[in-house]
Write a structure and sequence with these properties.
Blueprint lengths: L11 E3 L2 H13 L4 H11 E3 L1 H10 L1
Parallel strand pairs: 1-2
Helix pairs in contact: 1-3
């Protein structure tokens, strides 16, 4: 399943650890692997990659 933002200019920032964790869990429930998940997150949000990598390494 491919998620798409309505307009690239409407991307939200995904910088809070809990918000990133919630997004990761949602995509994992959809059965996405890590590469696909990161691609989708970057399509939808401006992601703090340091926080993202910290979360996925801990999981």
């Amino acid at each position: 399943m491919r998620y798409r933002p309505m307009d690239d200019h409407q991307k939200r920032r995904l910088t809070e650890k809990m918000d990133i964790l919630r997004a990761v869990q949602t995509f994992q429930e959809q059965g996405m692997d890590e590469a696909e998940m990161l691609s989708e997150l970057l399509n939808l949000f401006y992601v703090d990659l340091d926080e993202y990598h910290e979360i996925t390494r801990a999981a």
